[in-house]
Amino acid sequence: MTGRIVVVGDLVTDVVAVLSGPPAPDTDTAASIRFTGGGQAANTAAWLAWHGVPVTLLASVGADSAGAARVSELRAAGVDCPLPPRTDAPTGTVIVLAEGGRRTMVTDRGASLLLDPDAVAAALVGGAHLHLSGYPLLDAASRAAGVRALAAAREHGLTVSVDAASAGPLRQVGGATFISWVRGVDLLLANADEAAVLAGSAGSDPADQARSLAASLDAAVVVKLGAAGAIWADRDGVCTVPAPAATVVDPTGAGDAFAAGLLATRLAGGDPRACLTAAAAAGALAVARIGARP
């Protein structure tokens, strides 16, 4: 895989609150709060640019100050952002509550749901690889753009990876339905909760889930296990790597950094073990800081 990676998905403002302890109902909970750029696709694109990979982000923001700031940040980081802002919705906002190494997200996706399928398809021409955030597929308002991206990538000969995005919305649409949308991709990434939804009756062991999904899709499947490392399964077998030691400040964006590290290494010709090792190192770097970007 060589050339430009085109990332399709979301670009939002993250309001990240790293709590001092469990939130206390009906009173105050001290926190460190920061406004920052977010969105699974945008975060992955930013980390890819940090790795020196040519990258284009296809995501919609509103014609507002927040949208202008989010696009400006990414362009300054080396990410091409060709889509014009939308005048019919504000830039999306996600409130992230981080505490004890875990996070809860409260989402208003705004203009992120208004991706234009035709614009997405046109922008894929000339790309080498499509990385699709699962979020466009998981919401009916943006699903057509996600489906069109996959079809256009096949039409133009791009290799394809998909991130399963989020276990809650996956449960709502159904694992089998999501699998039907992404059949034919080269690589599927999921965390342990997402893999359990997608693998269905394949059992509770992540390695078994990865094997089952890889066989079903005839693709490489990566299951992210956080502090326990990661698993790669494909037709040649299963590879596992441990996670490096890390001090978790904010887990937001760790999976996005992981995906970027993996794709950058794959782009350079790395084998599964090298890809997982680089991905785990990037994820460890991400959790040690507040916010989802390098």
TrEMBL record:
UniProt keywords, alphabetically: Kinase, Transferase
Gene3D superfamilies: 3.40.1190.20
Signal peptide residues on this chain, from the entry's feature table: none
Highest taxon listed in the record's lineage: Bacteria
GO MF term set: kinase activity
Residue ranges constituting the Carbohydrate kinase PfkB domain according to the UniProt record: 4-293
InterPro entries per the UniProt record, alphabetical: Carb_kinase_PfkB-like, Carboh/pur_kinase_PfkB_CS, PfkB_dom, Ribokinase-like
KW Kinase (keyword) present: yes
Pfam families: PfkB (PF00294)
Family: Belongs to the carbohydrate kinase PfkB family.
Protein name (record): Sugar/nucleoside kinase (Ribokinase family)
UniProt source species: Asanoa ferruginea
